[in-house]
# Entry
Amino acid sequence: MDYLATRKLIEPASRVSVLGNSLVLVVPKGDTLGVAIGPNFDLAGALKGRRLSLADPTGVPAGRYAQAALTSLGVWKNVESLVVRGDNVRAALTFVERKEAAAGIVYATDAALTDRVDIAGTFPATSHPPISYPLAIIVNNDSAEARAFRDFLLSAPAKAIYRRYGFAVR
# Structure
C-alpha cells in the first residue's frame, strides 16, 4: 500500500488500516521447544541444530516481521544459519506441519488454520513493525461499486468474519 501511495495510485482519503495480526512461534503438534519468547531467549539452544522455518525475509512480509522480531530480541544472529526460507508464510507453516523444521514463525491466523501445529509462543507486538492490512480505493476507480465494497469490508458483518478467522479488527 505504501508503494501505491508514494506513486499516487490510491485515493489517500480512502486509505484505512482494517486488520492486524500477530506473529507466533509454532512447533509440530505435540512437540515442545521449552523456551519462552523474550529478550535474548535461547532459541538456537532449543532448536538443537534443527531447522527454523520462516517466509523468506528478503521478499515476504511475514519473513521480514520474523527477522525483525528475532533481531529486536537479540537472537537473529544465533539462528540465522538454521533458517529454512519458505516462498510464503504457508510454505513456512508446511515445513513445520511435515516436521521438516523443528519450529517456524508464522502469522497467528495461519497457525489457526491447521491442527498439525501447536503455538509455542507469541512474539511481543513491540518486537516487530505493526502487522497491518490496509484498504484503499485505486485512483481513477473511485466508483459507487468500489465505495460499496469498501463499506462492506468495513462493516460489522465483515468484522465478525475477520474475528472468526483470528484477525485483530481495527
Q: What stands out?
A: The first strand starts at residue 16 and ends at 20. DSSP finds eight helices and eight strands in the chain. The helical segments are 2-6, 43-47, 61-72, 76-79, 89-97, 108-111, 144-153, 156-164.
